[in-house]
Amino acid sequence: MTRWERIKYTLVRPDEEESDGAPSEERTVEQLRDHLRYADDRERAVGLIAAPVSAAVSFGIITALIDRDRTPGAKVVASVSTLKELLVVLLALSVLMLVTALWRKRLFLGLVLAIYGVSLFQLGWLGFAIPFVLAGAWYIVRQFRIQQALRKAEGEEPGSSRPKDGSRSSNGSRPRQSKRYTPPR
Q1: What is the pTM of this model?
Q2: Domain boundary assignment for the chain
Q3: Which residues touch 50 (CB under 8 Å, ≥6 apart)?
């Protein structure tokens, strides 16, 4: 494999195909629902590590922005009170990361990580923003893959909203007539 393929398969595992010859682990619907509902230990550990790191990064970035604005001749980007309010918001996101990691909520942890990363991106701190955005995307992709596996186990098509058995919704078999129809004269 090329270096790029090794990096790609290290970060994002490809979908397992059944033609590999290796037995894929079959999980029951109940196991998939439980796995969908709660994050596993590795995902929780990443969240528990990311929360204090994000708090430390928040303090460091806001301190650097305040110091940069206080230097003589520097263009003031924002007032100190605004930067302190921003620090409170970033710390609230850090606490939210910790809470969602403790509760093992994968999707919410991914969203909070991504929002925190985007907020750092907007401040211009790309080196700190990219890991948080990637971690948030990793959580969201894992949640999506587990949902797809659950749908497949339940017997639905991955892209459809209707079950395979052909049953229709309970609101009738025909669509309703448009109320905007004006008959010809």
Answers
A1: 0.70
A2: 38-154
A3: 97, 101, 113, 132, 135
